[in-house]
Amino acid sequence: MLKLKDIQTPIAKELELFEKRFRESMHSSVPLLNRITQYIIKQKGKQMRPMFVFLSAGLCGNINDSTYRGASLVELLHTASLVHDDVVDNANERRGFFSVNALWKNKVAVLIGDFLLSKGMSLSVKHNELNLLKVMSDAVEEMSEGELLQIEKARKLDIEEPIYFEVIRKKTASLIAACCASGASSAGAPPEVVEKMHLFGEKVGIAFQIKDDLFDFGLDDVGKPVGNDIKEKKMTLPLIYALRNTSTSEKRHIINLVKNHSENKEKVTEVIDFVRRSGGLDYAKEKMFQYQKEAFAILQYFPENEYRSALEQLVKFTTERNK
Predict the structure, then answer these.
(1) Which comes out higher in pLDDT, residue 42 or 209?
(2) CB neighbours (10 Å) of residue 84?
(3) What SS3 class is residue 26?
(4) Closest to 186 measured CA to CA, from 295, 104, 274, 67
(5) Stretch 164-176: mean pLDDT, rounded?
């Protein structure tokens, strides 16, 4: 099983320095803000997004100060989106810790998210990083559109496969695409190469989200409640496929369970069993590996080196991870 620590080898020193710089980028003269941002930093995840920034920069040129700012911008944006998501979802936990809104209430959490977004914008403007700011602004726009599109469709549970892919392309893949484009741009790559890296990140992001959707059906013990997406009335790829390939009466029955009985554990289990026996998981895995393959094909454009090798391993990690 691939380990992130091994994949990080070519950029281990850069990530260590980045952590220091990122902490500094979140500093404020307001004590409450500093208490909360320090609390957030303690919960840091796998650092996958900064990894995409640094490895993409290494692949397309040289890692430099602009690369560090790009990685900080990505993390500020990502952290802000998580804080806001917890408010929207009324979630009390994040990575095993209490969420910001659970400890300091929604009003403070929303303001913290706004503060982090503004920090990202001021970091870009201060150093005249207009290319990075554009890449990130486009990502924020797409992420917001993806969330709202998902909410709109969840009300009717009428998501077809093209809409599903549009939702995850905007909601999840746009940020990983922005990481790769930012890394390439920071290294001085020409526009066509930046666009190529953006597309690479998009393919990886879609594969990443499909893998996340598969976790909901209990294939691995990932700490995520099984059937959570069903409880939230999210139409994911395995369920969409299963509903498309069943009788009208069973489709009506399953949609009724999701729409009206998603809080009932037994009914959620019935939906999970239906998806499993309908081939929904195999179909989703097939699609996931298709996007992985397309991501690998884009990397073939670049010369073989330690950065390309690490990116290939990182792509594999997104689809082989068990949490």
Answers:
(1) 209
(2) 22
(3) coil
(4) 67
(5) 94
Three-state DSSP at 94 gives strand
Distance in angstroms (rounded) separating the CA atoms of residues 271 and 276 = 9
Residues 5, 310 contacting (CB under 8 angstroms): no
Say yes or no to pLDDT of 323 above 70.
no
Cβ contact 76:25 at 8 Å: yes
Encode pLDDT of 5-40 as tens digits.
Answer: 889 999 999 999 998 888 887 788 888 988 888 888
Q: Does the pLDDT of residue 142 top 90, yes or no?
A: yes
Res. 102: pLDDT tops 90: no
Cβ atoms of 34 and 27 closer than 8 Å:
yes
Ramachandran bin of 260, using left for φ above 0, alpha for ψ from -120 to 50, beta for the remaining angles: alpha
Please report, to the nearest 10 degrees, the dihedral formed by the alpha carbons of residues 202, 153, 225, 177 taken in order: 10
Q: Which segment of 49-53, 85-89, 191-195, 316-320 scores lowest on mean pLDDT?
A: 85-89
Number of Cβ within 10 Å of residue 248's Cβ equals 7
Distances (CA, A) of 234 to 87, 160, 207, 270, 280: 18, 12, 17, 16, 15
Q: Where are the alpha helices (DSSP H) in the chain?
A: 4-7, 12-25, 31-42, 48-60, 65-89, 100-126, 130-156, 161-168, 174-186, 191-215, 228-231, 237-244, 248-260, 265-277, 280-299, 306-320
Confidence (pLDDT) at 223: 43
Domains of the chain in sequence order: 14-307 (1.10.600.10)
Helix (H, G, I), strand (E, B) or coil at 205: helix
Q: What angle do CA 129, 187, 321 make, to 5 degrees?
A: 100
Helix axes 48-60, 174-186, angle to 10 degrees: 40
